[in-house]
Specification:
This protein is α+β, with helices and mostly antiparallel strands and 265 residues long. The protein is built from four helices and eleven strands; from the N terminus they run ααββββββααβββββ. An eleven-stranded antiparallel sheet has the order 6-5-4-3-2-1-11-10-9-8-7, covered by helices on one side. It is globular and about 50 Å long.
Length: 265
C-alpha cells in the first residue's frame, strides 16, 4: 500500500507539472489519462526553507530541501507592471544562462501540492530533449524527444503523449530564449541566494498558471522551478549534482511507441 501511494504521489506531481501549463484543453492521445491532481488543503503544513544555495557541480551532494514559495505571492499581475534596469539585467542573466546550456545531467527532488516528496535523475539535451526518471517505488518516467512529451507508467505499461510546445518544459529546453521578449514575465526578484523570474500564462478554458525559475545569485546555476496551477497550488522541482559536460546517450530520449502503444481513439 505504501508503494502504491508513493507511486501515485509522483504521478500526481507530474500531472500538475504538465497540466498546469497546457495551452489548450485537449486530452492526451492515450486512453489511460494522467490523473488530474486534487487541490491540497490550504492549511498544508509546509515550512518555508531557510537553507543556503542548493549544491551544484559534478561532485555528489545530498538532496537539497526545496524552497517552497509562499502561496500568498500569487497575486494578480499588474498589466501595467514595468521593470527597472536591475530587474531587466537579472532576467537577461537568467536568459543567457538558459541559452548557454546544451546538455545538463543531475538529480532532482520534487515536492507536490500535498507536500509529498519524490526523487530521481534527469537528462537534458537541447533543443527539446529531456528524460526524468523517478526513483522506486514510482514507476513514472517523463521523456521528450524534441517534439512530443511522453508521461510513461512502467507498471501499467501506458504512456500519455503531449505536444512539447504546450508544456512548461519548453522554456528549459529551448535552444535560445529571451525571457523578457519570449514570455510574459510578471516578476523579477533577487536576494543574496536566488534570482527568481516568474512567467505567467493565461488560457481561456483552464485559467492562469505560473512558472517561477530560480537560479543561484552567486553561481548563476539553475536551482529549482515551481509550477503554480490555476487553482493556486504549487509543484516544486529542485535540482542538484548538475553536470554540463557529461555526454548523454541519444537513446534516452526515444519514445517507445511499440512497447507502450497509444490505443486508437
Amino acid at each position: 500500500m505504501t508503494e502504491q501511494l508513493a507511486a501515485h504521489s509522483a504521478r500526481i506531481g507530474l500531472a500538475t507539472l504538465i497540466a498546469a501549463f497546457m495551452m489548450t484543453a485537449a486530452a492526451p492521445s492515450s486512453a489511460q489519462g494522467v490523473p488530474v491532481p486534487k487541490p491540497a488543503p490550504k492549511s498544508r503544513n509546509i515550512q518555508m526553507s531557510a537553507s543556503g544555495p542548493l549544491t551544484t557541480g559534478a561532485t555528489a551532494a545530498q538532496p537539497p530541501d526545496p524552497v517552497i514559495p509562499d502561496p500568498r505571492r500569487n497575486q494578480p499581475a499588474n498589466i501595467f507592471a514595468s521593470f527597472d534596469a536591475n530587474q531587466k539585467a537579472q532576467a537577461a542573466k537568467v536568459s543567457a544562462y538558459l541559452s548557454s546550456l546544451q546538455t545538463l545531467v543531475g538529480n532532482f527532488v520534487q515536492v507536490g501540492p500535498d507536500g509529498s516528496k519524490s526523487k530521481g535523475d534527469f537528462y537534458i539535451q537541447k533543443p527539446g530533449k529531456v528524460r526524468f526518471e523517478y526513483d522506486d517505488p514510482s514507476p513514472v518516467e517523463l521523456i521528450a524527444d524534441g517534439s512530443s512529451l511522453a508521461v510513461r507508467d512502467r507498471k501499467l505499461a501506458t504512456q500519455d503523449i503531449y505536444p512539447l510546445s504546450q508544456t512548461p518544459l519548453r522554456y528549459l529546453l529551448s535552444d535560445r530564449i529571451d525571457l523578457m521578449k519570449d514570455t510574459n514575465v510578471v516578476s523579477v526578484t533577487s536576494d543574496d541566494m536566488f534570482i527568481s523570474v516568474t512567467i505567467e500564462e493565461k488560457q481561456a478554458l483552464i485559467g492562469t498558471s505560473r512558472l517561477m525559475l530560480m537560479v543561484g545569485a552567486k553561481d548563476g546555476q539553475l536551482k529549482q522551478w515551481t509550477v503554480t496551477d490555476p487553482q493556486g497550488y504549487d509543484t516544486t522541482v529542485a535540482v542538484y549534482n548538475l553536470d554540463t559536460s557529461k555526454k548523454v546517450d541519444p537513446g534516452l530520449f526515444k519514445i517507445d511507441f511499440t512497447r507502450y502503444p497509444t490505443p486508437p481513439g
